[in-house]
Design brief:
Structural class: alpha/beta
Largest sheet: 4 strands, parallel
Distance between the termini: 94 Å
Helix content: 40-55%
Shape: flat
CATH architecture of the largest domain: 3-Layer(aba) Sandwich
CATH class of the largest domain: Alpha Beta
Radius of gyration: 37 Å
Order of helices and strands: HEEEEHHHHEHHEHEHHHEH
Strand content: 5-15%
Number of domains: 4
Number of strands: 8
CATH superfamily of the largest domain: Phosphoglycerate mutase-like
């Protein structure tokens, strides 16, 4: 019974369609054309956007409108106009919206990954946890918000009293001092070998150089609050010797891979003199002294590739360089400066950085905001 009623309804709709122009709105029309249909009691005329009639053409099913190579009847045109939108236009809008959303999602995920990596590096070697910089969860922020406000107000009053008693009414806090120390001579420095991320020990001369640097700090009356160094043995041992000589081995020392020496790529382990004789002095000097020139890269199968070293197990593969220019080395040191060293200095603490020639040069240029320079390279790397 239901099937018979449905069949009768379909026949009635088909009949109405033939008499009164009933339609199913499924016609596709290019969106570059906007047409309007003007109807009266005697005829249906398709009129263009500027009101110009397209003519009365008799044809099967009504008036034929020939736009380009697409024949269209007035009945189809009427169906398009009553549908209220162009299906092709809607599809393109949906496609554009989908592409935009995918791009936004990709950008948001990339930003979240960068923020996650940055927060992870802030706590490298326990720095954020020890210095109280580890971010709190949402419920901790809500719980400590009133206490934070009261502590801030108390500190403000205390600072005003202190400035009034000391005569410092300018309102400017004194930043801490930054002390940059290059590590002592390594065994590879002594025989003029490209070192990079390789890890030779200090030579006897390097030990004496570190001891001498400590005596200079004592003579200058420098107080040190926190120390940053690289993950390489020659810098770490230099730090130990200096702190031991000034009797401050208890100071916090944070080791960051971003303070490692410049990665020399395939030149690592090669003699500087022999390489210059083989490849040419001009080419080798360009790799060493130019700002953007990179030596040939290491391969993951090479002996000196640091990806197999346990000390870099927390780094992602894209963070381990295969080769670096001087500019790459400088850019690598920016996060440790912005997120750690600079923060300590702004808090009034004296910071000592025991690093390498190129990373220390990079820090100096970052502080001076000068990246357009040519470095005259020395033999100490």
């Amino acid at each position: 019974m239901r099937a018979a009623i449905f069949f009768c309804v379909i026949l009635v709709l088909i009949k109405i369609d033939g008499i009164n122009g009933f339609h199913f709105p499924c016609t596709k029309i290019p969106r570059a054309v906007t047409l309007a249909l003007v109807s009266d009691n005697n005829s249906n005329k398709a009129v263009g956007k500027n009101g110009v009639s397209n003519g009365d053409r008799n044809g099967p099913g009504g008036y034929n409108i020939d736009y380009g190579n697409i024949p269209m009847t007035s009945r189809d045109l009427n169906g398009y106009m009553q549908s209220g939108y162009d299906t092709q236009d809607e599809y393109e809008r949906f496609l554009y919206s989908s592409q935009t959303k995918r791009r936004q999602i990709k950008q948001r995920k990339a930003l979240q990954y960068r923020n996650l990596q940055r927060e992870k590096e802030k706590n490298e070697d326990g720095y954020a946890s020890m210095m109280g910089l580890k971010p709190r969860s949402w419920w901790q922020r809500i719980l400590f918000y009133p206490l934070k406000k009261s502590i801030k107000a108390t500190n403000t009053v205390a600072e005003l009293i202190s400035k009034a008693t000391t005569g410092n009414l300018s309102g400017q806090d004194q930043p801490g001092r930054l002390i940059l120390v290059r590590h002592g001579e390594s065994e590879w420095n002594a025989n003029k070998t490209f070192t990079g991320w390789a890890d030779p020990n200090l030579s006897d001369q390097g030990v004496r150089e570190s001891e001498h640097a400590a005596r200079l700090l004592l003579a200058g009356g420098y107080d040190i609050d926190v120390v940053f160094t690289s993950r390489l043995k020659r810098a770490i041992r230099s730090t130990w010797i200096i702190l031991g000589e000034i009797n401050q081995l208890y100071l916090p020392v944070f080791k960051s891979w971003r303070l490692n020496e410049r990665m020399y790529g395939a030149l690592t382990g090669l003699g500087k003199t022999e390489t210059a004789e083989t490849l040419g002095v001009e080419l080798v000097q360009k790799w060493r002294g130019s700002l953007k020139s990179r030596p040939p890269p290491l391969r993951p199968t090479d002996f000196y590739w640091p990806g197999r070293d346990r000390r870099y197990s927390d780094l992602s593969p894209d963070q381990i360089p295969l080769t670096e220019s001087l500019l790459d080395c400088m850019v690598r040191t920016v996060p440790v400066w912005e997120d750690k060293i600079k923060v300590e200095l702004q808090m009034g603490r004296n910071v000592m950085v025991v690093g390498h020639a190129n990373t220390l040069r990079g820090l100096v240029k970052i502080i001076d905001s000068k990246f357009d320079f040519i470095i005259i390279d020395s033999d100490q790397h």
